[in-house]
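Narrative of activities, Objective 1.

The group set out to show that a structural description can be obtained from nothing but a protein's sequence at a throughput compatible with the screening campaign. Below is one input-output pair from the validation batch, recorded exactly as produced.
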Amino acid sequence: MVGAVFQILAGALVPVADLVTGVPSLVIPAGYAFAIWGPIFLLGLVYAAYQMLPSRREDPLLRRIGWPLAGAFLLNGVWEVSVLLRQPVLLQVIIAGILVCAAVAFVRLVRSDNGALKGTDLWLVAPTIALLFGWITAANVVSFNDMLAKLGLLGTGPGSALVGGALLILGGLVAAAFVLLGRRGPIQAYAFYAAAVLWGLAGVVANQYDASVITSGAAVVAAVIVGASLRTAARRRYAAQDQTSERRLRRGKSVPAETMKAVGLRRYGPPEVLEILELERPRPASDGVLIRVAAGGVNPADCLLRSGGLRFLARQEMPFVPGADVAGIVEATGPDVTRFRSGDPVYAMLPSTAGGGYAEYAVASEAAVAYVPPGLTLGEAAAVPLAALTALQALREKANLAAGASVLVNGASGGVVGASQGRQAHRVDPGPAQRWRSGPDRGLDLRRRGQARDRSQLPAGRRRGSAPPQ
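Output recorded for this entry:
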């Protein structure tokens, strides 16, 4: 809001179209081309008011987009005030900063999944950012050429026109690269971005056609490049959608396919980004087991994946369903599965970064599935896989415990430590139920430092191993 208001006030003090008066450059667009700032200012104010609504104020995506967008508006206001100083290098630095802020906002927008943006977002947020970024892309070419002209580096004649033409084509190629390389996010963003660039190029042609055939022709070439890139990107999107539908039909699926409910996210953020999703029910591969999930475990890794803390190591496709630990009943199996059949009670560990456990159905490979041990409920079994395997790796592979060794468990709490408290934890053969039920031999009362007490002497509420960890 502050950035948009400051931008409008600065524009009132220094009319934007008057800034190009007397500039000895062959790539300056016609004055009416600057009218694009009208819808940009208006959309910026509406967007700021929209984000201030109580229902949208804490939206993680809008907040991530809003900060660089506000920076772009603030810097643009600074540029309009600083233009009175007539310092071309300073002005170019400022307008380059505007481009960086707008690019950050644009990239954050298009890297979001289509489902993360609703109707209002698609037709308010996307146009605001895309129009600003597209116009500033074209403006950087104009500003850079203007700086060279004012510093006396272009001279006059064909050389100046050739440099200006080359810069216009370069700007067109950069814009086309943004459109072609962006295969995610709302198509509206790319369409408005390309439209803003094309508007700037059209302004150059209209203003320079009688002054320089070279720069006018270069602007036309650049416009053709940008337009062709937008057409190609749109055709790719539609072709990808058609191929997805065709693959479903070839596999004998109806469109829409059989669905299920899941708890997942469409964008990274706090727990509030989790929502109920309706997704296509997974199908097991030849060695896969489809599990009708009765319970799922929650681990710290799930929280990191949900917040985006691991996105630089393993970026998830949205919408993403977290969850690695599941327990339930076998619904179906692949043709190569021999150990399980429909109706078996099982528990499994899914690949952590792939997720899929917070759903009505999950698919795991046969090697990652095991029968629920006798004496455990499905809810208890769902808490086992990740914590127990981590404890097993620590005790057997890292600590290299020998039979009969005593183990000090420091800070005996949490899933991993709870799974390591069995008296025979260094052995592989006892099932999880046996290790849990055995518990530790002795406990340390922290209120009486240094005093170890037998497990049998501990108060009932403090006996470890009396119940499975939850």
